[in-house]
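Can you give me the bound-state structure? Components:
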Amino acid sequence: MRRLVLASISISAVARLAWAGNEPPSAAYLASRELELVAAKKPQVYLVLSPEQRALEVRARGVTLDRVSLTGLELLSQQPVFGRSLPFSPSVPAWWVIKEGPGDADREVIAPAELRPMPAEGEEEPEATPAPTPTGPTPTPTPTPEPPVSYRIQLENGWDLWITDRLPQQGFLRLVGAALRDGWNRLRGRGLDLPPAVTLVMAPEDARRIHHLFRTGAAILVTTGT
Amino acid sequence: MSADPTVVLGVQVAPPPRRTWLWATLGLLVLLVGTALACLSVLRSGRPLVATAFEISTVLPGGLGEGLGVEKRAARAESELGKLAPRGPYIVIDTYRNRLLLLEDGKVLRSAVCSTGTGRVLRDPRNGREWVFDTPLGERVIQNKRKDPPWAKPDWAFIEEGYKPPPPGSPERWDTVSLGDFGLYMGDGYIIHGTLFKSLLGRRVTHGCVRLGDEDLEFVYKHAPIGTRVYLY
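Here's the bound-state model for the whole set.
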């Protein structure tokens, strides 16, 4: 009990010191930090999206490992040209869990057709295969394919997260053109219904380098408040 | 009798007024209106992607209001998060850019080019067993360190070269040169080690381990004690 009281006093003191001279933290900020605490207790890397700071951070144990600045943050949804009904704004702070990520894309498979016995010491290989020099883990000189700069990620809440380096052009004529194309496809039964997508616009290189972090089951914390 | 219909009984008669232009105009008009109506109908059923501002609505857990309670809880959360953060030196590895950082108190002690996993899959043709050559993401800990680390070659090292793996314990499995001068063991067979293929540093070429150049490896070996946390992303 005495320990509890002491701990409580020390936390109060820390709180007063921490916020002295600054704006006290908002309840939204607290909710964000408490949510992060749950993830930070696990040995996984997680992403933190801060709409106010226009940033996506890679964190582990509450420590920021990397930061991507967003050049745009929009909500993209399919709307009729006449009589729009915008989707609900997402509630934050919240965890968004990836239902299916592009990071789980097809991998290149190496599959030797058959295995031959190891040649005995001093014995020559029957085939004229060049001897691997030096020995050890074989390097794979073939370059690995570059990840795309624009990709969609399905979230468990039914939304999509769209990572891209540019938003589609939104001029009136372009919208009409897009509506005509989509309408024509729908008349032919080829219409595509896409869920609303939170669109993060960033530099192409940034889009590529975080691509592998969007794996199925990975979590993104959307924060708010200061 | 003249064959010309405009000449009747030798008298020139004016031809009836041509109304084709009227029909043509009317037809064009109908076509235009029809096209416009069809376009309008197509337009009405079309749903193009529209970008709008990303507006959030803040929803707080029940019972969370503003005030001193919030300050206390925020300080507690900050304090707990602070306790989870690494103390002493720690390693951060960016598997996309193939960069390794050794840090302490947020200060970079060493920045090095490394090589990480290809992400490829190797399949054993005999039984379909698969290995994924990924560098694991998340937090790991340096569990052990070793100078001149030997490498007990696993099955995949032979299968990848098209050979049948020798039995366990076979001397053919032992390799004392490939891992370089030092090894920092992160568990599950993942090691930060040296390489004979220095020209491949900076590329995704490994089977999941992290390879470093000789000088960088020596520095990391000397400055990262056992227990150092490694963050791979």
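A couple of observations. Residues 4-17 of chain A have pLDDT under 50 and may be disordered. Chain A has one domain: 25-103+143-222.
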